[in-house]
Amino acid sequence: MRVFAGLLLLLAPACQAARPTPSPPALALDVGATLVAEVDGMALVFVPAGEFLMGSGDFDADAEGDEQPQHTVDLNAYWIDRTEVTNAMYQRCTEAGKCTAPMRSPRYTIAAYTHHPVVGVTWLQAQAYCARAGRRLPTEAEWEKAARGTDGPLYPWGNELPDSGRLNFNQQVGGTTEVGQYPASVSPYGALDMAGNVWEWTADWYDSHYYAASPAKNPAGPSSGNIRVLRGGAWSVEPRAVRAANRFWAFPGRNDLDGFRCARSP
User: Fold this and answer.
1) Average pLDDT along the chain
2) Structural element, H or E, at residue 123
3) Residue 217's beta-bridge partner residues?
4) pLDDT at 262 exceeding the cut of 50
5) What is the DSSP letter of 79?
6) Given a cut of 80, is residue 9 above it in pLDDT?
7) Which phi and psi angles does 182 have, rounded to 5°?
8) Strands 258-259, 199-205: parallel, antiparallel or unpaired by DSSP?
9) Angle between helices 123-132 and 87-95 (to 10 degrees)
10) Which residues of 138-169 are buried (b: 16+ CB within 10 A; e: fewer)?
11) CB 78 within 8 A of CB 144
12) What is the dihedral of CA 94, 141, 228, 232, to 10 degrees?
């Protein structure tokens, strides 16, 4: 008996005549499905295939020009980490010799910060971690759909204004908090901490005019550039910066308040 992708496949005895075997049923995956990654123990949530509204419409008074025009995007199904990658997860990667230490986060090895998101990682370090874990950085479109769902609310929880009970922002805490501490901000797919705490790297190059030419199916960002997209806001930012559509950027080698989460295709 062998295991293939979580399905048990029974092999017929060698002495038995070969005969056609029906294909195993497809796994039923929908909103609410989860899995745990073997490499680092991260819980992932499932985002089904389909369309969503990306960017900001005229109704959003805080919208920046690079968030427009609001447009419909169709994505294949994917999985995304429930939270940001933690210090403990990243430390195990460095101890295994597969990741390099964050340059601006000496406390990532301190026990009190074990379950805080790792910060001070460059885009290249985040990409290397995800690859080692058998995953990848999410595209900007994947990140935004996972954060807000299909119909374009302002925040992961809806359109109500952010407050200290929903997220870590606006210097109300004064630093990072442990991941998963704000269940009231859960996204429609079960992702946590997609507003505030730390900025998160995505896979895409940044272009302020990209939305005007973005493909409708599985956009992956510009083909080249020199700065990468960050999403989600951080513990220090003002309320307008934690909107799900807000776009930010940094050079791939910068590592200030930046963390990340990973994604994977089914």
Assistant:
1) 89
2) helix 123-132
3) 74
4) yes
5) E
6) no
7) -130, 70
8) parallel
9) 80
10) bbbbbbbbbbbbeebbbbbbeeeebeeebbbb
11) no
12) -70
